[in-house]
Amino acid sequence: MAARCDVVVLISGSGSNLQALIDSTTGGDHPARIRAVISNRADAYGLERAKIAGIETRVLDHKAFADREAFDAALVQAIDAYAPQLVVLAGFMRILTPGFVRHYQGRLLNIHPSLLPKYKGLHTHQRALEAGDAEHGCSVHFVTEELDGGPLVVQALIPVESNDTPESLAQRVHVQEHRIYPLAMRWFAEGRLRLGPSGAELDGQRLPPSGQQLRN
Asked: Do 99 and 58 share a domain, yes or no?
């Protein structure tokens, strides 16, 4: 078997996307291996998920650092101790410094609960409902210095129902997040996904601006 792709996952909360990533790698033939889970919050339940799965954990409290730059410098050191080929943001609630993003250029993925470039930032489900959108969903993208603005890898689209609330929409989007994030990680680990000079590429072909789109 070829060498596996080592992955470090960053979290701040319950870690439901982390769980989906862990579950996807349980087969012995998976090309990715989650080496460590690092959280900026000691009470993040995702740390328990990692421990149950036998994955190393680290806590790095951002409040213990003088500023964002100092925290990110320490975070780089913590991540690089595992020499990962890929760093995955799974509900990591920190805005990253340009230096951090550049350090992991082309090997840093994030998931966002909207069909980017729509609704960058927070309250995405509420905003989709207020806009009267017929479709909503989630996006996996490479991270660049522009917040939620990096090249798109894959999106999952779901119809917005007439009786949807932000909560019901969030629930259905969550299901799709758990579907597409493991997929993107697998593509990367297999060497199929990369960040090229003009955007995300899958199997040597440049992906469209919206990435691969999967409809339910």
From this structure: yes
Number of domains in the chain: 2
The verdict on 75 and 158 lying in the same domain is: no
Residue found by looking up tokens 């596996």 in the block: 4
Rounded CA-CA distance 12/92 in Å is: 5
110 annotated ligand-binding residue? yes
Active site residue 136: no
Active-site residue among 30, 62, 103, 112?
112
Tell me: is residue 15 an annotated ligand-binding position.
Answer: yes
214 forms beta bridges with 156
52 a known binding residue? no
Contact in structure between 154 and 181 (CB atoms under 8 Å):
no
Do residues 133 and 195 both lie within one domain? yes
What tens-digit pLDDT sequence spans the chain (216 residues)? 468 999 999 999 999 999 999 999 987 789 999 999 999 999 999 999 999 999 999 999 999 999 999 999 999 999 999 999 999 999 999 999 999 999 999 999 999 999 999 999 999 999 999 999 999 999 999 999 998 999 999 999 999 999 999 999 999 999 999 999 999 999 999 999 999 999 999 999 999 999 999 997
Give residue for tokens 């989709």. Answer: 128
Q: Is 94 annotated as a binding residue?
A: yes
- Please state the pTM of the whole predicted model: 0.96
Q: Which residues pair with 206 in a beta bridge?
A: 201
